[in-house]
Prior knowledge:
By secondary structure, the chain is of the alpha/beta class. The chain folds into three domains: about 70 residues, Arc Repressor Mutant, subunit A, CATH 1.10.10; about 110 residues, D-Maltodextrin-Binding Protein, domain 2; about 120 residues, D-Maltodextrin-Binding Protein, domain 2, CATH 3.40.190.10. It is about 40% helix and about 20% strand. It contains eleven helices and eleven strands. Strands 3, 4, 5, 6, 9, 10 and 11 form a seven-stranded mixed beta sheet that branches. It has a two-stranded antiparallel ribbon with strand order 1-2. It has a two-stranded parallel sheet with strand order 7-8. Helix 6 links the parallel strand 3 and strand 4. Helix 1 packs across helix 2, helix 1 packs across helix 3 and helix 1 packs across helix 4. It starts with 7 loop residues before the first helix and ends in a 10-residue tail after the last helix. The C terminus is likely disordered.
Amino acid sequence: MLPATPDLRQLRYFVTVAEEKHFGRAAARLSMTQPPLSQAIRALEETLGVALFARTKRSVELTPVGADLLPEVERLLARAEGLRPLAQSLARGEAGVLSLAFVSTADYGLLPPLLRDFGTRHPRVRLELTEATSDVQVGELMAGRIDAGLAIAPLPSRYSAQLAWLPIAREPLVIAMSADMAARVTSAAGADRGCDPRAEWLDTPVSLRDVADAPLVIFPRRLAPGFYDIIMDCYGVAGLAPRVGQEAIQMQTIVSLVSAGMGVALVPQSLRNLRRTGVVYRPLSESVPAIETGLVWRTDEVSPVLAGFIDIVRSHAATGDAQSVAPRV
Length: 329
């Protein structure tokens, strides 16, 4: 019974005979005798079901089918020869694919320097990037559909044994409000202190009490309950009960709603890099907890490519480079 597909040895024989146009010279080049070479070519033709060579007593010429097939076989052999170095590169984490998810806030702070560093060190790795909330990332990780994620702490405790967490950066919350509201709040605060409010427009802290009547624009609690509770606790510590106005999934949408005058939002400081017309970001005068963003991945499945990315993230976290991405006030 003939094999369903030819083997690489037969294909190399085919290319050599095609180049030499002589079985004797091809056999000598292959360091073998002519009879087994002829038999191998016959077996290849029978497997493919076509004649590759037109043979006479004095010459060997490619048939039209053989001539058309030759470049395809050469490309196939070239790819086969590249398997070993490719396998070695994959084992060293120098090639492959990294599937990475990230929360929208990371796109304005942590993500760009990490990707630049990783791209410089691993230019042959293909990145597959997906924006996703922290809860979605956990689900995708547990299902094996992504390799790692940049998420906001805390993660669900029930996955603590299956997921590893590497903190990268901590940043304070700031308040995003419309430019009109910021002007009113600053003017009132400046008048109380006898100051020119225009000189303090960009860096004067704002108290939550100054905007207590404004609706709060926030994401649904189910998406990131830990982050949601941190925001609510800020109001609770100040003795306030926030009035939730609008809910949105993405930070970009939340900021857009703020620009439309739909309310205020408490967002990580790195969101200041999201410059939206009509939106002002101000520090809070209250003591607020820091938001921690980190890398999460499955503990039981760390590929060489992922290990390389973890090393880069760890170096950024250790040197404080990730902290430096937060913009100045």
